[in-house]
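Schema walk-through. Below, the input block comes first and the output block second. Nothing else is stored per chain. Lengths vary across the set, and this one has 339 residues.
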Amino acid sequence: MSVTSAAQFQAVSQVFGDFTAVDAIDLTIPEGKLTTLLGPSGCGKTTSLRMLAGYLRPTGGRILIRGEDFTTAPPEKRNLGMVFQSYALFPHMSVADNVGYGLKLRRVSGSERAKRVTEALEMVGLAHLAGSRPKQLSGGQQQRVAIARAVAIEPDLLLLDEPLSNLDARLRLQMRAEIRRIQSETGLSVVLVTHDQDEALEMSDQMVVMKDGRIQQQGSPQDVFPAPANRFVAEFLGYENFVPTADAQVTVRPEHLHVNARQSPAATSDGLSLDGRVTDLAYRGVDVLVTLAADAPGSSSPDPIRLVADLRASTAPDLRIGDEVAITASPGHLVTLPA
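--- output ---
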């Protein structure tokens, strides 16, 4: 039987006392792709990763790796590479010895071990630091060593648990590209846990959005981003504007709202057209964030709804707090959410 997936969750659950951390999820990790588990703290993404790694045994369901049932197998039987948030390098060992540690445990011969350590360090651009100690390295270099160690064992799956959260913003951007390059060059199947939607959008072949132990939506970034399945996914992906209608609710991203001095625009049947008032302005160099209060025809509340528009500074109209404005969005930028 040919293997079509690197791993599968089949109705997998994890219950701690009265708390259900993961609730009967079904998920396929495709072979040779990068999958992100995305969501806020407590959504079940790290628990799912730990069950896949073998550090937690599911309370229900099955976990398959390359078509075989590994639900109850211990971590050392799974041939998985793991990169932790804290890197978990041995401070008393050299970089080369850290990278070769997993190979030594697997009783790989000295010559083969040296070859694979060198290849892994060359892949992450750190061959010249093979004799250094971890404390002599920057955070980004330590992260590269941890990745090299995980890749050196030639794992069936590479698991990354919030691997970039301890790095500064500039290094995070660099390491996103580095991890994608490594995945592309090696063809590894990778599962990455993150709470950062930009990270997931930039790096994923498949992104899996989770909340309260359940999968809310999954698919490629190109499929999920323009068509969130519900309000939770929309909010998590940066949709800030939610307008009630007679039958449901529509959402539109801040960069797709247009704001102009009020000219009583004709309402359209499919686009968005509202009257509103400017309540705040924030100049950010290349753009201007405009906060607005608007009356929504489909709202049952007497209070105005809050909207945010992100306008290019070079083309934004001259607005002041208190200005009466027309707020519009084209039909192609509106996403209808379930009620």
